[in-house]
Amino acid sequence: MALAFIAGVDPCLQAENRIPGPSLSTAIPKPQRSRLTNSRDERFRSDVHTEAVQAALAKYKERKMPMPSKRRSVLVHSSVETYTPPDTSSASEDEGSLRRPGRLTTPLQSHPSVEPWLDRVIQGSSTSSSASSTSSHPGGRLAAVPSATTTALAGLSAHAHLADLHPAPPDVTTGLVEPSHYERPQVASVRGIPRGYSRNILETADGVPVNSRVSSKIQQLLNTLKRPKRPPLKEFFVDDFEELLEVQQPDPNQPKPEGDQMAVLRGEPLAVGTPWPPTLLAALQHWGTTQPKAPCLTALDTTGKATCTLTYGKLWSRSLKLAYTLLNKLTSKNEPLLKPGDRVALVFPNSDPVMFMVAFYGCLLAELVPVPIEVPLTRKDAGSQQVGFLLGSCGVTLALTTDACQKGLPKAQTGEVATFKGWPPLSWLVIDGKHLAKPPKDWHPLAQDTGVGTAYIEYKTSKDGSTVGITVSHESLLAQCRALTQACGYSEAETLTNVLDFKRDAGLWHGVLTSVMNKMHVVSIPYALMKVNPLSWIQKVYSYKAQTALVKSRDMHWSLLAQRGQRDVSLSSLRMLIVADGANPWSISSCDAFLNVFQSRGLRPEVICPCASSPEALTVAIRRPPDLGGPPPRKAVLSMNGLSYGVIRVDTEEKLSVLTVQDVGQVMPGASACVVKVEGTPYLCKTDEVGEVCVSSSATGTAYYGLLGITKNVFETIPVTVGGAPVSERPFTRTGLLGFIGPDNLVFIVGKLDGLMVVGVRRHSADDVVATALAVEPMKFVYRGRIAVFSVTVLRDDRVVLVAEQRPEASEEDSFQWMSRVLQAIDSIHQVGVYCLALVPANTLPKAPLGGIHISETKQRFLEGTLHPCNVLMCPHTCVTNLPKPRQKQPEVGPASMIVGNLVAGKRIAQASGRELAHLEDSDQARKFLFLADVLQWRAHTTPDHPLFLLLNAKGTVTSTATCVQLHKRAERVAAALMEKGRLDAGDHVALVYPPGVDLIAAFYGCLYCGCVPVTVRPPHPQNLGTTLPTVKMIVEVSKSVCVLSTQAITRLLKSKEAATAVDIRTWPTILDTDDIPKKKVASIFRPPSPDVLAYLDFSVSTTGILAGVKMSHAATSALCRSIKLQCELYPSRQIAICLDPYCGLGFALWCLCSVYSGHQSVLVPPLELESNVSLWLSAVSQYKARVTFCSYSVMEMCTKGLGTQTGALRMKGVNLSCVRTCMVVAEERPRIALTQSFSKLFKDLGLPARAVSTTFGCRVNVAICLQGTAGPDPTTVYVDMRALRHDRVRLVERGSPHSLPLMESGKILPGVKVIIAHTETKGPLGDSHLGEIWVSSPHNATGYYTVYGEEALHADHFSARLSFGDTQTIWARTGYLGFLRRTELTDASGERHDALYVVGSLDETLELRGMRYHPIDIETSVIRAHRSIAECAVFTWTNLLVVVVELEGLEQDALDLVALVTNVVLEEHYLVVGVVVIVDPGVIPINSRGEKQRMHLRDGFLADQLDPIYVAYNM
What we know:
- Strands 4-3-14-13-15-16-17-18-21 form a 9-stranded mixed β-sheet, with helices on both faces.
- α32 packs across α33 (1145-1158) and α35 (1193-1203) crosses α37 (1233-1243).
- With 1516 residues, it is of the alpha/beta class.
- The protein contains 42 helices and 64 strands.
- The radius of gyration is 40 Å and the shape is elongated.
């Protein structure tokens, strides 16, 4: 493993900046031998494997991967002292005091060196490479930059803290300027810098300072992603409409099997002439009555003392008592509770084999079917629900247990045993002696235990987590006992030590069944004792002089690590050491290492007998010692690459990626075996091909209980030859084991079907991947070797997921290094990418009954987002190779061939217009009302006391009102003050900085009265001056305002000390406070020379962070008011309620202009007041019986979230919304259907009409293009294909079809407005239902931008665009929004067919990725659906990487669950790979007053490292 991986500076950076970095050498230090503490959690691993992994990692060149950043509070799992590199703490804690100098003298990782004696044993050579650490500098000190793989570019923190970590650090800041502390006024709400601001800051193209740590990490990520991928697979691609996923074509060079077809392998015949007992129960009766004193079973406690020895006499008499009790003493409603053949659950702890054995034989004697299960410890054990399902389907009503166990079960309030989730109702019977009835002398059990009847049911958890019951008949049970007796050479009265679970599998077959047939003595070692004393089984073999022992490789491994200094153990009495999981790839190393150590203690090499078994086929094969006629054992060194294609190739040259397996002996006596293809028809495999081993024998399981379909597939397979001829009369049972038949007819197993992961066309075994991960240094990193590997399906292919428990004391640094190495090792050895690698705190993975990991439950938690990892590394860029081909844009068809009359390419041209203004009834009035100042004077004169405005506060009380004459007089006062105090001239610009209210309206008309141009500006937020004040300042400067009008309070705020820290307060223009201006009249009210003179400036910050001010002339202003008046039928007698911000766009027009123009009364509800009283707006609508009301999405969302549970209470208070004809959401975006629908549904209870809610659409060039209004058809909704939309096409689909996206019409087009859809690039007109840019022409279009930060050239044609062909005369304004027009079946007010306008989204916001156009909202909607604790989401791109920011509503510890779910859903639904996932607190995503996400500010904040994220994951 190259040293550079730790110490590094990216070599390419060194070249550029001549940084004196550490030399990038690959020295491997002398092994540092430290004593192993608690060392038995290092799982058995093969030395060969370790060397292979080290060599594989050494091949990797230095490769920087950005380390995820984590907020301090999330590091709950590591101790406080753990060194955290500068990157992982959040920006707010960048103080040097957090890191004490000299902390790094301790090595960063505890050295995972194995004990010296074990080394020599395993290695047998002088180089102790399995002990040498692959990752430390000589002496174990870190001699270079901390945060090994990451700080190479660690921006700010590099300057601040490297000095205190070690002397003379290499300068890793890549020659950036020292970060000067300067104001970034635009981060708050505006991007880019106006002229006149200092330009000497080094910025990236997007105006973001480069000193950010985040962008340096993104640069690392890009460098990592630039590495050449594996050669691209052949692409399979048809029409870009379908966006087909690539289909992986087989590699022409892949290895193919070349051998002959295999022959069926037959085991030795069952011995004839041996006096077998006719049945197992007959054997029990025989020994129980003739040799009652013979020991049958010895149970041990956790100290290793024998607690109880069950004799054959006792076993027989107790089993009889139990059988009698079960059949005769249990009744329900005077009926016997049980009939022969009923199933009974056996619930016994692993420490009580004696009671279990009595229960098992008692059931057999009573002709009941025992179903042994685990003891449920809590109501929600891993997989417990599935076990309950099995019990239910088996019809179990009774559970047998012991007194002690029953006391420990969770209880309900009644004192009864609690009902476990998913379990059927059970009666519990305690079978300790005192609870059983003694049978009368003449009572004999009926038991006829022969034949095909079911003897017992063993449960098995399958790959998908479901639990099935495998039935074993009496016939099979007897045959199994006979076959094992013969294969293992069991003889009467021999002693067996059993470490396995006696309830199932080999532990049951050898230790409970076969032992009784042969009157053997079993010494049962409980798991709890093994945990305390791993040597216990060896000590018992020695003290009982046992001839056979039954263990798993784990037990051998544990005892290896604990055996030092034990003088008194000898294994010379053993003739067979049966390794029950001999089929596991790692059992070979345990067997070898165990033999090396214990050969000197009397263990003979031929004694080790690995065997292979499966729940379906019981024992499949077992190695026999030579005295029982077994051939010598063999090993196979197989090419991992060959295996992944299912081909056996003995590997000679490439030592790295090999799998070494040992044989598991020969087929069982009386059985036949063959190997068949895994998928499809069970054809026999060739001799050099891996397939599923199948067994035909009378000793296999018979069925999956109650599941006929899969039973037939598994238990009744008929293997066929290539020609299709069946190979035998008798059916075979599929074992679920993958393997082949080697020389001497020995069986080799290379994996299990359950652990098979098919990635692309290659197959990988989960166990092999686990073994590779466990061989990665530091091995002690993984807590007790607990690693789960499984695959999940994402984007139609299996993806490998690896989850490991990390040691409690592991630091962030260790974790990340270990993860990076594991990825590289697996990539190198298995040539497969890991999709997701997650680390969880020690002891948190769901446990299987005997301490292993419950894989299916782990997978379930991963997919549900309840795994709670403490570290995650995702590599979708590396793994996902089947994405659709990036789209190439086609050259467009030229205009000539396209347009004929009003058709484009055979479709009607997409154009539509509102009602014609000329025909409308108020045209003469319109001429009078050209100037709003005139209108106000006219109203003050004709209807002086008519109320125009009512302003409500949070309590719903009216705080100020204005009649026509009051407003006129207040406006006059303002005008007088401007002229006298401010000495302003006509045409001067005046900034109005007011809270929402009547003062703002009066100031606006005051400006018009003296000919000044008003600019409304949202006041700064007193609690948040730092971000809001710079925006105010910027608008004042950019609009060239020569005076600021405001209230007393705000005036004080603008000049305050706090303001001085945010902006330069000396440069404010004149500030006039209008609270106490004298009552004066103006000599004459200004009248503009022409309607085209500028009336006001409308400034707004777009969602992309651009501050744009548009010019509104007097003509446009009155035209706007007239259009709205006509559409909404506004008259002086009407009241409308407005809950909007009055600073820009339609909100400003409705608040300040319309009432004066139309004379209706406006009830003004400032949205801020809703924060203290959510129901304010709806109560006002009800109280004033408003027919028309306007709100913003943020208001609607507050009501939906805040009043969801309170509709009943509001009804009690008399809130009634049946008066509402139209409730319009003022928006500049695609209608948010989900929100409007939930709002409608929720308030239907308060009388809100179903069709009332609609949306409006406006933008910078025209603030009101569509408004639903009171007449006309309801808004329509269509469903479009989201995939087509990415290609700029509209394809209408049915509701609910996959990838469908609902779009709602944005209200009706206003009178006088014309809309056309133009092609974004050619600017030609488009046809009906084609997606293009919405262009608008209307008398109330703005006349142009006042300013867009010196980017005028860019926007010059926004207001004066012409079509490239067709009608080339009309002047249009380009809205910058994508949408389409569709002619509907509905009729307009005018009787014409209605044209609906659908807005898809802003062009500025769209993301161009893989040649396609994505709308952020679509990706965000998918992400929000991915997990219930995602409150909000925003996406943006940075250097072609997709960055997803999610707000977490929940515990910080659960933050990392979201990383994989977010990545999965975006891949699955949008075919995009997420580059960075940022998890932040609720409320971090900035939202503007319209409720739109400010994605660009978010981006700037992220890059400038200002978000204080909980976690940032960089996907590889």
